[in-house]
Fold this sequence. Notes:
Elements: E1 4-10, H1 14-24, E2 30-37, H2 44-57, E3 65-67, H3 81-84, H4 106-116, E4 122-126, H5 131-139, E5 147-153, H6 169-173, H7 175-182, E6 188-191, H8 193-196, E7 200-201, H9 203-210, H10 215-235, E8 240-241, H11 245-252, E9 257-262, E10 264-266, E11 277-279, E12 291-297, H12 299-310
Parallel strand pairs: 1-2, 1-4, 2-3, 4-5, 5-6, 6-12
Antiparallel strand pairs: 7-8, 9-12, 10-11
Helix pairs in contact: 1-2, 1-10, 1-11, 4-5, 5-7, 9-10
Amino acid sequence: xxxxxxxxxxxxxxxxxxxxxxxxxxxxxxEVLGITAVAGNVPLELTQKNARIICxxxxxxxVKIFAGCDRPLRRDLVTAEHVHGKTGLxxxxxPDPKIQLQDQHAVDFIIDTLRECAAGTVTLCPLGPLTNIAxxxxxxxxxxxxxxxxxxxxxxxxxxxxxxxxxxFNIYVDPQAAQIIFRSGVPITVLPLDVTHxxxxxxxxxxAFRNLESPVGIAVAQMTDFFERFDIxxxxxxxxxxxxxxxxxxxxxxxxxxxxxVNVEIETQSExxxxxxxxxxxxxxxxxxxxxxxxxLDADGFFSLLTERLAML
Length: 313
């Protein structure tokens, strides 16, 4: 089996951190070509730093990390410190990173990577707002057709919104960027709130992380200890949903997930529903399907995979 070449585009965020760790722990299935940071959960200065912190935690100091866009394409930045804390990685106490940030801008790295690699061999994995990917597509539209697939965490349908009544955070932060992506023609798989809210870190599952008794396992347990306070209060759930690791788990074992190939459009005009992912789940329009919209997962299988892989770091 040849490892799938991916670029992780991210705004860490505790759940982003766990997704990065899962990818770095799975070299047989995944080859991380680079990690590109974007402003989202916290400003860019922190997201690029957090990406470096996590790679050092994993012991993967050779991963190339690039800073990208510090604001959405056409609107002001909205952040989520109320969820992730002032650093974005509140919970564990982790040292400042020694890994150096690459000089190249993340958008140019994405473009150069797509240009240099054979068509259909690079998958883009956005875990945050889609600004970097959309900026790359606007700057070098001739390379869009070279993307193998985009597998992203974002959006919602049955679960509606988590930052507004209608919109999920990643899409809401930069709806114009999301619209560019969903209209690009690239094969897209979406891991929305509908599925990620089923990936709940119960006490038993978090104890399994902590019982690894490794720096990675303990840090992940501490992250979810912090992260869950928001979701327990808001939703009354058993624990924190691990949104972003669903993207990486899907790449490793798509049989854990199920969904439907539907049309997804992004609302960019309405003040009331800005950033809404309008998924034609029931096929009531004549708009052609443009995304695999994932709606369910084997939660026990997901957490077994995650715990097994974290134990390898």
